[in-house]
């Protein structure tokens, strides 16, 4: 039963003779080669254009859920990832400007994953050479120097996708769609890839690659005068420049490519993955391979019985929430309790990012995550960070996990004790077998120099000021450099800590506090105790984006068990008086008097 005395202020931690309710202090966390489109015998017909219902039936058959299997093919070099009949295979689109290296990466993807490589250029040549109805129609446009209409190209792609090998092995759609209308046609027919890969290469590099290319008219092989020179002088003497490889035409093609790429970007914005294509082909493929393996891994998880498609799951998260776990003062926390909070934080953070929020903070305060308690566990903090980073990496995002380094000079040099050794722990943690660490997850410090162009999301581990030193300047420089990319602070402690001169408390304090307040909570959880105590737990305050703050009271049951009963909800974080009033049953709109000890 609650005493009827006045409760303490939100930030009070002083022991008072009169028991009063207090928030827990801020904390940290612990703890085969494919069947090529050109070699397949075309059997398409213009009647396919009027058979969209048939297309939809074909493509829906691609989406039958089953157990994805990974097998080792003893005849191939290394591991070959394939899908058994009845499961949903990989579906990949790849795009890149002329000379981006797309053809090379397609060959490597097909060799590794056994996907059916579908190129619209190959399809057109096959249809024309075979004299099919679609081929003859396309030839009329090509001979007239006109672009082949979208409906003809889409019909050819649909026909190829409906073949049995594409259904069983999966497909790699190369350079298609090229326009918004083509992308929308595929969307209407329910054709959507698991991932849309874009090879990103600077224009000047692309131009140099193109104008240095040479064609061997005898073998059809492409060489480059600098990067891939011919093997003999005889071959070199007969090389010719392709008509499209002049600087003027290359720049024109680049502009067309950019315009088309921009037009279809909105269709695939949530699955696009940009890959730095200005590297050796082996490095590029290593990143692509890691990405596709993660898609496979995620597919395996999703196919397990009882798993829910993420979009559906997120809509049901709040309705299916099981309530606050009990026995939170039992230390160490059970694996189930830790997993509960990791999942709760992850789902709230994902919702906030999907809603376009970019400056976020997570504040979670349970005993293992409260550095002011002797049961604080740095491992629990690291586990939470790992769950967040791996989840974002599974979505193909590059994640930079940042831990602040030493600050200050002379006698004040060093870092907060809470963070000592954190970076080493992160580096030696188990990050899985799919190459996430190093490819999609990297560890850095706090500052603008840590922001790389390929980084998508930044997770900053417990940023905090040290005595006489302030992390906010480095943090602000980093967020400025990050631009509109999400930055997530995990249990920040950004209040001023005075130095011996007291200067830090006064100079620029307003600006520092304003910046710290610019991060919005995507998740908040704090246990409530009587002021000056850490036992028993009296209640909890929870917020999970985008829902309201929920105030709970812990209730002992006759059976000896306990439960949390909701008392009230708030659109914004309640102050101490609002919490006190809710526990005492006072009306919400009653005029408050100052209470507590500050």
From TrEMBL:
<keyword id="KW-0067">ATP-binding</keyword>
<dbReference type="GO" id="GO:0009507">
    <property type="term" value="C:chloroplast"/>
</dbReference>
<dbReference type="GO" id="GO:0004017">
    <property type="term" value="F:AMP kinase activity"/>
</dbReference>
<protein>
    <recommendedName>
        <fullName>adenylate kinase</fullName>
        <ecNumber>2.7.4.3</ecNumber>
    </recommendedName>
</protein>
<keyword id="KW-0418">Kinase</keyword>
<dbReference type="Pfam" id="PF09353">
    <property type="entry name" value="DUF1995"/>
</dbReference>
<keyword id="KW-0150">Chloroplast</keyword>
<comment type="similarity">
    <text>Belongs to the adenylate kinase family.</text>
</comment>
<comment type="subunit">
    <text>Monomer.</text>
</comment>
<dbReference type="InterPro" id="IPR006259">
    <property type="entry name" value="Adenyl_kin_sub"/>
</dbReference>
<feature type="domain" description="DUF1995">
    <location>
        <begin position="338"/>
        <end position="580"/>
    </location>
</feature>
<dbReference type="Pfam" id="PF00406">
    <property type="entry name" value="ADK"/>
</dbReference>
<dbReference type="InterPro" id="IPR027417">
    <property type="entry name" value="P-loop_NTPase"/>
</dbReference>
<keyword id="KW-0547">Nucleotide-binding</keyword>
<keyword id="KW-0808">Transferase</keyword>
<dbReference type="GO" id="GO:0005524">
    <property type="term" value="F:ATP binding"/>
</dbReference>
<keyword id="KW-0934">Plastid</keyword>
<dbReference type="InterPro" id="IPR018962">
    <property type="entry name" value="DUF1995"/>
</dbReference>
<dbReference type="InterPro" id="IPR053021">
    <property type="entry name" value="Chloroplast_ADK"/>
</dbReference>
<dbReference type="InterPro" id="IPR033690">
    <property type="entry name" value="Adenylat_kinase_CS"/>
</dbReference>
<dbReference type="InterPro" id="IPR000850">
    <property type="entry name" value="Adenylat/UMP-CMP_kin"/>
</dbReference>
<dbReference type="InterPro" id="IPR036193">
    <property type="entry name" value="ADK_active_lid_dom_sf"/>
</dbReference>
